[in-house]
Amino acid sequence: MKITPVIELSRVSKSYRRGGFFRKGERVEVLKEIDLSIRPGECVGLIGPSGSGKSTMGRILLGLESPDDGEVRMMGESISAETHLSKNRRRAVQVVFQNAPDSCNPRMTAREILSEPLRNFEKLRGRRLEEKIDSLLKKVGLLSSDKGKRPDRFSGGELQRICIARALAPGPDLILLDEAVSALDMVVQSQILDLLDELRFDLGTAYLFVTHDLRLVRRFCDRAFLLENGRLEPFDPATFAANKHLPLLDELVKAMPPSRPNRNRG
């Protein structure tokens, strides 16, 4: 049986005008005929240098921008410029950013942080709202008693769990993980990735995992792509083998630290 992808980009292109207020600048093509599909429960890795178009692709997936050319489909339905900011689109694709403290209002408790999407998308109130908040906290390994805490009372890893719970609150089909574990130490990284693995297998949530760390791509992703010069090139996350020679990928692989320290002495 054919599985309908959560989201598809078909020959998507995007360009920007570079220049000042008083002269017409050149047009720079950031994305060039991008094809990408992500299935339910799948984790797709995305790496690329600064300025390669990762952020632009993310904004298109989130509905914050529309492509110049090509088509975006969600669960098989084409997303037009008029519907890209619809409530269903905003519910279906959520995001978790790198810096959890900057992503949370320091004056809000965990309960208030999680209440916002539940009220906006699910229209929950009263007891049903409290039960859903408790359920989300449990899903990410926190306690009901934590909902009265403000961000400064959580560790970095705990606060990122709050951000994940917030992303899960509207029941999304896809979560964009934008360097979501990069600011955490390796032990907490492993814990968060284990949590995300459990959630995608339990809930069928798909992930686009944007990172600069190839070790995390190997650890976490089913498929992976390198975005460079506006083009999307696939590679095997287990072996880092690509269908064509990719010098940047070779450089990133060589720059990876060894899995074990070299104890040899010269």
TrEMBL record:
Transmembrane keyword on record: no
Q: Which organism is it from?
A: Dethiosulfovibrio marinus
Q: What Gene Ontology molecular function terms does this protein carry?
A: ATP binding
- Output the SMART domains linked to this UniProt entry: AAA
Q: Does the keyword Nucleotide-binding apply?
A: yes
Domain of life, per UniProt, equals Bacteria
Q: What is this protein called?
A: ATP-binding cassette domain-containing protein
In this chain the ABC transporter domain maps to 7-254
UniProt keyword list: ATP-binding, Nucleotide-binding, Transport
Question: Which PROSITE patterns would you find in this protein's record?
Answer: ABC_TRANSPORTER_1, ABC_TRANSPORTER_2
Per its UniProt record, what InterPro entries does this chain match?
AAA+_ATPase, ABC_transp_ATP-bind, ABC_transporter-like_ATP-bd, ABC_transporter-like_CS, P-loop_NTPase
Similarity annotation: Belongs to the ABC transporter superfamily.
